[in-house]
Structure formats: structure tokens, C-alpha cells
Amino acid sequence: MGLLITLVSCFLFAICAPLGKLMYAGDWTPGPVTFVRLAGSCLLLAIPMFIQMRGRWREVWQVRWYVLTYGVVCMAGVQLLFFLAVERMSPPIALLLEMTAPLMIVLWVWASTRFRPSTLTFIGIVAAAVGLLIILDPRGSSVDLLGVFYALSAAVCLAAFFVMSAKADLSFPSVTLICITMGIGAVVVALITAVGIIPAGMTTQDLDAGGVLLPWWVVALALLLCTGGAYTTAVVGVRYVGSTISSFLNLVEVPMSVVMAWILLGDLPVAVQAIGGVFVLLGVVFVKLGENRQERRRVIARTNVHPETAEMHLVVEEEAPED
């Protein structure tokens, strides 16, 4: 169930990418697009949030610092930094750098727990990275150092999203977390745009979607619905499958986005992109197998204190996997 929910999230996120591209083609800038996505999705989720949270607001206040950090880093940070990177460099390079978030999570878990990931997990990392390189094909693209900084910062924020969502032990529904933090993120983006740190530009002209002219508000509404649904299912999915698996499964968003761009924008994918998608899926499978093997390994630490020498010995036993 967790894998299915996470795949739904990836699909909704994949739709958001070409919809956002339509708005950029209509002279919108990253600040207004990000604000519209966050603020609009917050409003759409407000009704179910108030219904679910009647008389339970104290539960949110008890974890107010977690909620505030989630809104600033996981909502405003991920979206705004990525779109700022796209302004200064090609979208494939920016997406490739942002997708290093799963690698950051694996390395962070390894460094913090001193427990080396399994060999299958490493194979999955390599396969996923090769798949992304094939799909995005960064050859010949110009690289802007500030753009690289923005993209890597977005990757850090994305890694924080997976880790914070997986470790969240909240008593209130996920819809409430998403709604409130989207509102916080919208306020942050609005303040950054208002003070002139990033430019503000938007128009009300019709947008060209594969030869069909659509009013800007239709595209914006579709973007809001997909954004709210994507984040809600992402938080639910990551609680089922964990941060590592969810972050690697999120790589499937790339080939999905290629397909949706073909449908909505007429950008026909080539065979090499399909091959890259296969590598990404294989990488996800290997990571899942590696995580399952890690779960079957039970480490039992016993501390034996010898009265005469007072030396402490650590005995590590490994349980054999079941047949």
C-alpha cells in the first residue's frame, strides 16, 4: 500500500512539472508560481483540515517548531530553490542535482548510525544514478555555479522532507500538516518576493498547451489540485515505506514527467529515455531488496562486565535469514 501511494504521489508531481512549464512560457516567474501553488493548495485543503481538527488544535501547538521548520524547509525551500536553479541553468541539470537527495539520505544514515548499507542498496544507488544520467543527458549543457548552489540546496531540502516525514510521530492527520506548512511556505515565499530578493512577474494571458489555448486560471487550478494531492500522498507514503525507499521511489517521477510532458507539451520522448527509466526502476528494486535484507539482520549487543578487570566486551550476533 505504501509503494502504491508513493507512486500516486510521483504521478501527481510529474503532472506539476509540465503545468509549471506552461506558466513559465506565459511570462510567470518562480516566485509567483511557487506562491500560487502553496497558497492555493493550502486553501483547497483548509476545509478538510478544519473538519478533522475540530477541538484538536492543541496537538498542532505542541509540535509547533516541527511544523514551522517543515513549512520553511520542506515546502518553501524545495520548490523555490529548484525553480531558481532552473532560471540559471538547464532544467535537466537542475533536476539531476536535486535528485541527489536520496544519496544524501543514505550517506547521512551511514554516517550517523555507523551501519553500512547493504551491497544491494549500493547497487541500487549506482543503477538509479546511471538511469538519471541517461534520461537527462546533460552532455553539452552549460553550468552556472550559482544555479548549482540553488539545485544542491533544493536537494538538501528534499532530503529533509523525506527524513522529517518518515520520523513524524504526529497525532493529527497528514492533511493538517500539509495544509498548515503550505500556508507557512506561501508566507515565506511572499515575503522573499515582496522585499525584492527574487523578481515578481505574472500575466493573465492564455497559455498554449500543445496547441490548445487555456485560460491561466485553469492551468493554475490544475496545478493546485495536483500539488495538494501530491504532497498529501507523499507524506502518507513515506510513513509506510520509510525515507530511503520513498526518496528512491521518487526518482520514478523523472520518467513519468517525460511522459506527461509528451502528452501535455508534445515533447516526444526518445528510446534512450525509456532505457534510463528502466535503470531507475531497477535501482528502486535493488534498494528495496537491500532494505528488506537490512531489516532481517538483527544486531544484538550484549555488555559483559568482568568484575576483576571491569572490561566491557561488545558481542554482535547476526540472525540468519529465514528460508
Automatic annotation (TrEMBL):
Single annotated GO MF: threonine efflux transmembrane transporter activity
TM helices/strands, residue ranges: 32-51, 63-86, 92-111, 118-136, 142-163, 175-202, 214-236, 248-265, 271-289
Coiled-coil spans in chain: none
Domain (EamA) ranges: 2-136, 146-287
Superkingdom, natural source: Bacteria
Alphabetic keyword roster: Membrane, Transmembrane, Transmembrane helix
A GO cellular-component term linked to this record: plasma membrane
Protein family: Belongs to the EamA transporter family.
Name of the protein in its database record: Threonine/homoserine exporter RhtA
